[in-house]
Amino acid sequence: MSRFTSITQNTALNNGVLMPWLGFGVFKTQEGAQVEQAIADALEAGYRSIDTAAIYGNEEGVGRAVAASGLKREELFITTKVWNSNQGYESTLKAFEESRRKLKLEVIDLYLVHWPVAGKYKDTYRALEKLYKEGHVRAIGVSNFLIPHLDDLLGSCEVVPAVNQVEFQPFLTQPDLQSYCKDRGIQLEAWSPLLQGNLDVPLLQEIGQAHGKSAAQVILRWDLQSGVVTIPKSVTKSRIIENADIFNFELTDEEMASINGLNKNRRFGSDPMNFNF
């Protein structure tokens, strides 16, 4: 039987902190009523992990939605990220305080370096290590780091990143990065898992029909069975519910292999090796 049978299931990060396998992303979700309603719908559907970032401009709305939920703080897992223009040691510490103020949370569950800004990300990560050691964050990690960035960081850091959040989808499976992170105890997490809406892929639709599921649900299930945490976003209640309904079917080994075979090394987002920081 599958090990993924409930939205309440977590993965244990390399420091023992539990993180939900399925989370809810709020990238490009508008501050105010839109993000608050989307999170309310997500929490109602059973999600307990919310992923935001300083650059999204909606941390305050996330904070209000969390406060209004009535859920105990320990029931929720909140992630945010330090933006590129705030990278550096002291500026990251200030940025964290700003994020914490907006979220109205004493402790952040996961704090990430948003992009590997050359010449800055090591100092940025050093600030994250300080925040972690002082108990202001429960886990720290990185986002959009490829193997060269991780090699560089691991050569000097004291705390191995708990998470690396990257673009991961059927056209960009990054098997070398998957293996690298797994070997070092770094949990891979997929941002923008649903091909940014480009779901008209015959193979995914065929597999979906075989299970009575949508192409989106097939991708999210593939994420989990690949051992990758995933954080789909939507502002539509029916889609939010649909994206969570992935725990009552299982992809076969053959189906997993065929989805892996869709890889084209094609990005919908920016390339971390050629990003205009």
UniProtKB/TrEMBL annotation:
Catalytic-site annotation from UniProt: Y56 (proton donor)
Stretches assigned to the NADP-dependent oxidoreductase domain: 31-263
Domain of life: Bacteria
Protein name, as recorded: Aldo/keto reductase
Keywords from the UniProt entry: NADP, Oxidoreductase
Family: Belongs to the aldo/keto reductase family.
Lineage: Bacteria, Bacillati, Bacillota, Bacilli, Bacillales
InterPro entries (UniProt xref): AKR, AKR5G, Aldo/ket_reductase_CS, NAD(P)_OxRdtase_dom_sf, NADP_OxRdtase_dom
Organism whose genome encodes this protein: Paenibacillus catalpae
Site (Lowers pKa of active site Tyr) location in chain: K81
Binding positions for substrate per the UniProt entry: H114
Annotated GO MF terms: oxidoreductase activity, acting on the CH-OH group of donors, NAD or NADP as acceptor
